[in-house]
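Our collaborator T.R. sent over the components below with a one-line note: 'Predict the complex.' Nothing else. No constraints on interfaces, no templates requested, no preferences about which chain binds where. So this is a plain run: every listed entity goes in together, and whatever single assembly comes back becomes the starting point for the next discussion.
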Amino acid sequence: MEGKPITPAQNSSNPSASPESDQEVLQIWGRQPLKGHVKISGAKNSALVVMAGALLCPDDCRLRNVPGLADVARMGQILSAVGVKLEQNAGVLDINASHLIDAQAPYELVSQLRASFFIIGPLLARLGFAKVPLPGGCAIGARPVELHVRGLQALGAEVHIDHGTVHAYVKGPNRRLKGAKIYLDYPSVGATETLMMAATLAEGETVIENAAQEPEVIDLANFCRAMGAKIQGAGTNTIVISGVPRLHAVDYSIIPDRIEAGTFLIAGAITNSELSLSPVIPDHLTAVIAKLQTIGAKIIAESPDILRIVPGQTHCATDIETLPYPGFPTDMQAQFMALLTLSEGDSIIKETVFENRLRHVAELNRMGADIRVKGNVAVVRGVSRLSGAPVIATDLRASAALVLAGLAADGVTTISSLQHLDRGYEQLEVKLQKLGANLRRVKEGTDAANVHVPVNPGRSSLNC
Ligand code: UD1
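Returned assembly:
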C-alpha cells in the first residue's frame, strides 16, 4: 500500500480538526449574502460503518470519497487497535484487515465515537469472538445497544458484559454465527448495520425485520455486496442476508453526505442566498426538501446530482416531527430549528428519536430566538432578527445550527466547543468562506471587535 498511515492529524483534511478544537472558537459576522457552489463531502455515517465493514474482508479494501473528519480518524485508530493497516491519501482510504489481533478497542476512543461499537458485528463474524467496551451515553441521549446485543444472540453469539466491556463469542468448532430471523423493536440504524455485517459471514439465511431504511444502510449493503456478500432488501424494512464463507477485495465510493447537503440548503435559506450543491442524491433529502418548500424556500433540481436553492419569499412556520428514514431526520432537526427561529409564525418541533436533543434551544434563545421546550417538544415563535452572541456548541448538529444562526444574525456570534463541529463537517469554514461568509477560527479570547462588515439587507416583505 502507498500513502500515509492514518493518524488523527493526518487523516483530517479539516485544518481545524485538532485536539485544540475545544480551545478555539468560531467567530461569525452575520448577515453576509452567500453565493456560489458547494462541494458536498462523503457521508460521515456511511464512511464510519463502511470502515467497520472492512473488517469483514481479509483482502484489500479501497474506499473513496472518505471525508476528512475527526470521527473518521478516530474510527481509523479503533481499527488499528485490532490489527488493521490503514493508509490514507486525500479522500482515498486503503484498509487491510488480513491480520486481526485479539485486542480490545480502547474505551477512551469508543466513548468518543459511538459508531465504533459497530465493529462488534464484523469482528464476531470474522473471528468468532469480539470484545468492545460499552460506549455509554452521549450528549443527545442514553443510546443503549441492547438491540445490537439481542440480535447477535439470535445469531448464536454468547454475550456477557463484564467491567463495562461486551464480550461476545461463538461456540462450536467453526465459530460461525448462524442465520436467524430477527425482529428489531425499533428500526435502529446502528443495530441494523451491526446485524447485517454479522450475518454476511453467518451460516444460512438471516432476515432482519423492522430494519432501518436509511441511505447509509443501503450504502453499507452495497459495499458488502461489492465484496461478495448476498444481501437483498436494504432500503426496505426487511433485509435478507444469505451468509457466504468469505468476502473479497473491493474498491468502493462512499455516498454524498445528505446531512451536510441539508445543512447547506438551510444556509442558503437562512441567508436568503442562491447556492448550488453537488454531488447530492436528491432522493435522500426528500423530507428536508419538502419541509423547505413548505415554508416557502425554492429548490431546483438542476441535474440528477445538483441542487440549487434560490432566494424566495418570506419563510413561514411549519411543524416537524423527527422520525426514522424516510421521515424527517433527527440529524437535521437542530439546523431546521435555526431556520424556523426566523420564519413567520409558530412552529412545533417534536424530537422522537433521541431523548435529549434539544440542548441547542438555550443557545439559540441567547441569540434572540423565542423557543419554549416541554419534554421532547419545542415551540418556536418566529422573530424578525437574531443577534450575535457567545454560544456553546452542545453536540455535532447543534454546532451546525449555531453556525447557521450566526450566519443570519446581526453582529458577531462566537461559538465555542468546536470539537463537536469537527466531528462531522469537513472544512465547514473553508466552504462557507468560499461562498462569501465572514467567519474565522481563532484562539478563545481573541477580540472580535473592530471588524467592519457590510450587512445583507435581507427580505423586505412579510407575506405568510
Ligand atoms: C445513527 C447515526 C446518527 C443518527 C441516528 C438516527 C451513525 C454513526 N449515527 O445513530 O447520526 O442520528 O442513526 O438516524 O450512523 N436505540 C435503542 N437500543 C439500541 C439501539 C438504539 O434503544 O440498541 C435507540 C437510541 O437510543 C435512539 C434510537 O434508538 O433513541 C435511534 O438510534 P439508532 O437508530 O440506533 O441511531 P445510531 O445508529 O446510534
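Summary for T.R.: The chain has two domains: 8-41+256-443, 44-253.
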